[in-house]
Amino acid sequence: MKNFCTVADNNFYDRVSALEYSLTKVGENFKIHLLCLDNIIENKINNKNIICYNVNELKEKDKILRIAESNPPSREALINSGGNINKAKKLQFIWSLSAYFSWWCLENLNIKDILYIDADIYFYKNLNTLYSNLYNNNINIGIVEHRCSYNPVNGKFNVGIVYFKNNFEGYKCCTWWKNCLLTTNHQFYKTHSSCGDQKYLELFPELFKGVGILDEYIGHLAPWNFNFHQYNKEKIIWNNTEQELLYCHFSNFKINGDSYHLAPRHGFKVAPNKFIQNIADEYYHCLKEFKKC
After folding, report:
1. What is the pTM of this model?
2. How far apart, in whole angstroms, are the C-alpha atoms of residue 222 and residue 41?
3. Residues 6+ away with beta carbon under 8 Å from 22
């Protein structure tokens, strides 16, 4: 059985439900460990594949996590919050939970590995190819590229999915990442804190052993890289390599009545091609079903 973790509040109830549905649809045997940011989503979730944990309970037991709520926000958090410092601090804290909850799962659950997944990701294939390559290539830590032109603020890698094996190196890396997000008095804060949890991923290959760049094994899409791929029927082409689409990261997807805006913050109100339209239509119809709940 595969163990996944994610973080969400009630605003993302439909996203978490769609994530679970997509994994079930492709035939996975899994558990999603969900860190609930409010009681509403915790009370709503009624699914055997989703195990809920309450962020307030974690904060009660961890003083450093409580203090981290007051940490200064990153540049990206300020931009996403329209310059509102309180909203930016809240967003920064939420971003820190991807690292923290991944670590918490390794620390407290009897699992051999964990795959962090952003709640607004939707899968189109099962993860067997990914996990076969993780195990066959002795990968302790797995990260994916943005697959677009390099931005020194956002970094080379995306936090959409991050893999940690529960061994010495995987645990050490995850603990380091968590500590970087909870504190500001470390040597990498000035150089790698510009985008919440994300730019720290660039340091993984430098500081830890067994880091795998997963793009070699899987195809994935997101609004920031739609225009950096070519499309051939049911497959995508990246770096002149044809790949099956494992997942799409539907960042900033907006339901608009009986239609949707694909990713307005990223410059897409409508899909740029038929391939994207087809996968987005499926996601939209799935979200609509869970919006009714």
Report:
1. 0.97
2. 25
3. 122, 123, 124, 247, 286
Q: 226-235 — which CB contacts under 8 Å span 24+ positions? A: 226/268, 226/272, 226/276, 227/272, 228/147, 228/148, 228/149, 229/147, 231/273, 231/274, 231/275, 231/276
194-253: per-residue pLDDT in tens? 888 999 999 999 999 999 999 999 999 999 999 999 999 899 999 999 999 999 999 999
As a whole number of angstroms, the distance between CA 64 and CA 291 comes to 36
- DSSP β-bridge partners for residue 121: 249
Instruction: Give me the domains of the chain, ranges plus CATH numbers.
Output: 2-220 (3.90.550.10)
Scored b (16 or more CB within 10 A) or e, 97-124 reads: bbbbbbbbbbeeeebebbbbbbbbbbbb
Assign residue 270 a region (left: φ > 0; alpha: ψ between -120 and 50; beta: otherwise).
beta
Report residue 35 as tokens: 């860190």
